[in-house]
Amino acid sequence: MPNNHAWQPASWRNFTALQQPNYPDAGALAAVQSELSQLPPLVTSAEILALKKRIADAQEGRSFLLQGGDCAESFADCESGLISNRLKVLLQMSLVLVHGLRKPVVRVGRFAGQYAKPRSADLETKDDITLPSYRGDFINGPEFSEAARVPDPRRMVKGHARSAMTMNFVRALIDGGFADLHHPEYWNLGWVSQSPQADQYNKLVQSVGDAIRFMETISGEPAHNVNRTDFYTSHEALLLPYEEALTRQVPRQDGWFNLSTHFPWIGMRTAQLDGAHVAYFRGIANPIGVKISAGVSDTQIAELCEALNPDNEPGRLTLIHRLGAGNVDKELPRLIRAVRSAGARVLWVCDPMHGNTESTSNGYKTRRFDNIKAELERSFDVHAAEGSHLGGVHLELTGENVTECLGGARDLLEADLERAYLSSVDPRLNYEQSLEIAMSIVHKHGSLI
Question: On the chain, which terminus has fewer CB atoms closer than 10 Å, C or N?
């Protein structure tokens, strides 16, 4: 746990804060922060500390972290069908991983707070009209109009409410038996009933069900531990006024907890050692992640580890590398060696999405499934060659029948993107592609044993 007793949730204000909106009314922003600071938290310190222990297990190779969800949530998508489908995909992927890796899976959703997104440019131009960029529903609206693009602090209150509703529904589903391994048929998504991936998955489900029934028969006792599954939330803690307002001290625990999520992370664009986001993350007791790109030097990564986890606490720090399929063999070995030389204890996770983004000839932002799969598989190989191990994967995915990433089970082509491209920011894996990635992880892990 951070030992800087002078730290306060507002300490980040003494540093340069990148990717923050320019609110036109400072008084309105302060009023919203005050309101947020009085609202109930979204998660508990006990849940946060439980996740930290599970990440510590993943660091030692005793479990595997599956982190996935939308690139950017929208307020309009706070809807029961979309939430349950997202949960179904993560459950199905985790079942594939548990069965194939023979170890527990730590399930972390990119939801209930993923409402802010960094942008490469502050302004966007269409038809000779220039407006502020859309930065996520926490900040402004996606509609290309002057009114929609003005940053509005009241959106943070609405985002908090949507996050609470999402968490409430997820918890209710899980507590109600939705995640019961006795009934994985509850997790089926009707639109993929004819998919070859679904057929392979259904055979696996039958195998798992037979194994559970066999164990219960010989023991004479129900397998209670398969009745429910723990889920944790995560988001990029980009909008610092929001994160500050949800950072609290709690009874019978030392330190400060970010109670807006279990597992916040720092994005690649805001990971400056002398920046406001690192200054904020230094002081919270949550397990935290940092996105690492090919541009990070050996010195920078060692200094980030020291700044964010000076006590080398187990489960505290996760490094999420996003390098691109063409850079893994060149860049990942040196990053692993730099962290090892620094003596830092971290969980290595691969984000094979963000380094493989491209634009098509017809103007769509997309990712090629083959590149996503290649980066992930090469990352496993490099970690094994370096005497390290890849302990998790970070994916942008959805349970909807979208056509946003090229390739995969149905071999989606550029012309297919027009059919169901629904993302307002980044392209996501659909159900089939997500399940294929899970099966690829299992196959690669088996080849390395």
Answer: C
